[in-house]
Write a structure and sequence with these properties.
With 200 residues, the protein is mostly helical. The protein has a single domain, classed as Arp2/3 complex 21 kDa subunit ARPC3 (Orthogonal Bundle), CATH 1.10.1760.20. The protein contains 9 helices and 2 strands. Strands 1-2 form a two-stranded antiparallel sheet.
Amino acid sequence: MSIAESALSRPTLAAALWPATQNSKLARNVILALGGTALLWLSAKIQVPLYPVPITMQTLAVLLLGVAYGPRLGAATVALYLLEAAIGLPVLAGGWSEGAGLHLLYGPTGGYLAGFVVAAAVCGLLAERGWDRSLPQAAAAMVIGNLIIYALGLAWLAWQIGAPAAIRYGLLPFLLGDLLKIALGTCGLPAVWKIVGRRQ
């Protein structure tokens, strides 16, 4: 990291709530990563009834982990989650015993899953520049992260089923749910920082 980048960088929520020493950094990161994959697993299994399709809280968890953990740990946590799915743990969306297997990483939803890693990294970079501390910037960070997931997901899906079908089945049914999740994350981030500021 250059001096200029260091000057721009601000502590993430994870760093503010659990500062790491040189000796404890590895253990702290492992614990946070495992906890993050557990959160992603739960968020993928909990469905919110919404017309025309139910939504999970998975994308919200991805974006919040990126913001809270920063680019490296956030992306590494999501990558670890996908590795868990690839080796057969039922952590992806579906029933509690479903959502596992390497084939899911290159199936129709493979682009969205790859987008999770990129979105977590980008949201983490934005958080290090303080975008998670005000409502307008938190909203922008969440929207940017969601657009990254859409871009990679729809590009991969369009390659498999064509662009019109990809938009019809991979975008339009999820817009309302994603807007609600973005609103939830946007309101929550500055509020958490206020609590952290009071504690400090």
